[in-house]
Amino acid sequence: YSVTSQSTQYVFYNMKAKPFDNKLVRQALNYAVDKKAIVDAVYFGIGAPSTGPMAPVIWGYDKSLKREPYPYNPQKAKELLKKAGFPNGFKCTLYSDTRTQRKNVSELVQAYLSQVGVEVKIELLERGAFLSAGSKGVNGMGLSGWIGTGDADGALTPIYHTSGIGSVNYSQWSDKVLDAMLDQGQASLDPKKRMEIYKKAQRYIIDEAPQLFLILENTLALSRNNVQGFEPYPNQIAPLFKVSLK
């Protein structure tokens, strides 16, 4: 079984740390990485490049975002870095936990960024230490992911709202414009109004690029032939109340 997951993978930037306080730098690094190649190499082609800050299966997703917002374009990345004042690139650290998959993705991101002059040192941390470092604010970037809930509020508010700083807002991003949008979406009971709010929020987040948007994951599962009624869910929790054995 294979279904599109609610989970997205990304590299977050600490936007309080230089040079990631510069939007042009954040956008440049998005153009510098071939996400499709990473999906093929690490995920064996099971998944897709990210189309923004939340997965298409989550309610509130902007369906006009059908393609990755920053297609692979190293020349564009170099132009933006030059415009940002870094014609020769810069040095930084990419933090990750020690899981093999995350380590492999980190190494590929490192390789792609080196091609536009950005020299990346990878720092591997035990999972608990990584989560603690992320919440406090790393000195650089970090490879992480988010699954949220089936609603746009759960997908966006924890990791992009100012209230998430010190928790899972690893980008340490505080933006009054975005906070207002997310607050309105959370408070409204009108689905149409909420949908429009979250569409605007997604476009705003993509433009500000607090992350290097990487991968939309798939949820995979297996069963024997005598299993009936099984269905994997996008939230990676498999409900078994409909399952029987023949």
Uncertain stretches: none
Average pLDDT number: 96
Query: What multimeric state do the chains show?
Result: single chain
Query: Percent helix among the residues?
Result: 25-40%
In spatial order, strands of the major sheet run 2-6-1-5-3-4
Number of helices: 8
Distance between the termini: 18 Å
Basic shape: globular
Judged by helices, strands and strand pairing, the structural class is alpha/beta
The biggest beta sheet reads: 6 strands, mixed
Question: What is the alpha-carbon Rg in Å?
Answer: 18 Å
H and E string: EHHEHEHEHEHHHEEE
> Quick one: how many beta strands?
8
Strand content: 15-25%
Summarize the helices and strands and which ones pair or pack.
Blueprint: E1 2-13, H1 23-32, H2 35-42, E2 48-49, H3 74-83, E3 91-97, H4 100-114, E4 119-125, H5 127-136, E5 141-146, H6 152-160, H7 176-187, H8 191-208, E6 211-220, E7 227-228, E8 244-245
Parallel strand pairs: 3-4, 3-5
Antiparallel strand pairs: 1-5, 1-6, 2-6, 7-8
